[in-house]
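Per reviewer request, we include the raw input and output of the structure prediction for the construct analysed in the revised manuscript.
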Amino acid sequence: MKDDNVERAGRIDTATLSDALDRLGIAGQCLGIKPLSQESRLVGRAFTLAYAPVGPGGTVGDFIDDVPAGAVVAIDNGGRPDATVWGDILTMCAHRRGLAGTVIDGACRDTHLALGLGYPMYSRSYSMRTGKDRVQLEATQVPVNIGDARVGPGDILRGDSDGVVAIPRAREAEVLDVAEGIEAAEARIRALVESGVRLDEARRQQSYHLLQRRDA
């Protein structure tokens, strides 16, 4: 099914979206979350999962078949580096099901398969150490923390070589409008510079220093 705002977000880089989020006072930058590959790109709506330290009868969760094609799996494991929550079987299943990628506030493993398949994987770290008997899936489709961003089910996640941003569903049209305006102004600056105009003058003409300034 066509999703116009997801498609719009996919045409804008994370740096520009970050500037738009700053201008609107939205903390949507998933700081500390990095791509496995500088070639990685992802965009889609978040399918969220929250993990917690293991309890009696806990399980890492067999959730993957419930995630719709085109979604981004967003896992909050509290930033833990010592208990992975994603490995090669999940990567294989996600790739086969047409998921848009995975974003983890925590660690993944079996990175070779994600790299080999070109599956977009973003995480705080990676390690060989399993999360089995260390963490458990506590809740699905609830608000989670990814880096410094609060991510709700259905929020747009956009990733590229610089990292990941989260666009709240309730304000996505506003964020995208602002980001597209910033992108257009920066394109005009580049064109002016290429025509021989000094950078400082080109920036002045396009009010460059106001593009990311938070709206009053």
